[in-house]
Amino acid sequence: MARVRKDEKIAFVNLEGKLITDFVFNDLPDYIRDGINVWDFSDGMVAFEDERGVTSYMDRDGNYVLYNEIREFGPFSEGLAHCRLDGKEGCYVDKKGKKKSNDYFRGTTFSGGFAVAKDLEDRICILNTKGKDVFKSESNEFSSFRSLSEGLAALCSTEKELWGFMNTKGEIVIDFQFQDAEGFSGGIARVILPGGNHAIINRIGKILCNMGYPGSNFYYEQIQRMNSGKSESVVCENQNRAKLIDQNGNEIADNILIYRSRNLTGMYVQSVDQGNEEVLLRMIDSKGNDLSGLCFSIGYFNGRYFWVKRDGKYAMIDKQGVVLSKWYDELLMNYTSGDYNWELDGIIQFYHDQTIPFRLGEKWGYIDFEGKEIYGASFSKAYHFRSGKAVAFQDEKPVLLDKTGNIVPLDHDSIYEFSRWVYIAEKGGKFGFISTEGKPVGEFVYDKIEIIPDWYNTQDFEMICGYGILGDKKIALDYFGKEVDGK
User: What residue spans define the domains of the chain?
Assistant: First the structure.
């Protein structure tokens, strides 16, 4: 699910883009707890404030939990959330709103079956998902703490006023020696040394790299997410490039392109200077091995299949660098209004419907992510597949395709891409819309339909995606092709 916005109010939609709630929730500033925005779905639950100022949790079916009983709240993780109920101290509750722990003044999200909390006597506690304490410190022994990550929690000694790390048994495994410390990700953590320099440490506290004063925290955060769950580490050198190092701080590769590599797992895009003002790219693994060879450009779909461009030709490769397809003159992979990639609660709905139009000479066809041809190069024009169907043109006439080889002629003069859900169609000099199934959506009444470039970059749900021209009238249209009242 995802939040959508309209007229400063929030509603929630499912993966099909359908509303599961009305626009009755207040649009509030991000409220981040343990790196999670509580206004977004987490572990199948979301916190909200409705138009009357009432706070609550809601599940994926739109059912409210603890309606008008929450005063402070955190995101759900592993089935539990720390919140403060009306007139009561904080505690952990389950998805039915039932209290599952002792009272805690503050508590983190769960990670690996454990969470860190501070009780009413100012003691740091580690509890399991049954709500039972497995460790409890002395009163006021620690002044601050952060959530567990990879089995370790950063916390600050009240006496030393320095940060160290504790494991889930309550044992101090990295002594108090840092001015500040963040959580571990991929076996590394960022710390601030006495004096203010930023550094990277491993799980035994060894400094792998002293970065000094980094120019941008933003890039480091992206690197940290990129390495989640892997043994290798990436350390930012400047705002654009990074180097790949191992757990002992040894350099594996330099000139890693952060932006292109951030969503990959165990693979990185490296820039290779050719010495003649030409810079090529290649894909490498976590050991620095070349996977793709030198390429003009590299892109990826889901971390398993990639496309590369060499000598003006395109092909699909897998993460071992094996070429899966023929070499084509073009692969149609640019984002357009019809190809916007929605990310809902961590689930990516691929804009290509697992297929890619290709051009070979003057003709178009389709391949899947594994490089297998679904249709050979036989079409004069080809649009992306959506919901198992695609519009293409044979001898300049539109046809509807499925993935099993069925080709059905369409009774329209021409068809144009508009959004993920509908196409613009022309028939008898009038314009209207058809669905991805080729069925009419409303009447063909417009003299012309204009598309607004980059409408998919806006955040409003009932966004204006185009205009229907009807005589002197210019009528706003949403991405379903429906008229937007008052616009």
Answer: 1-100
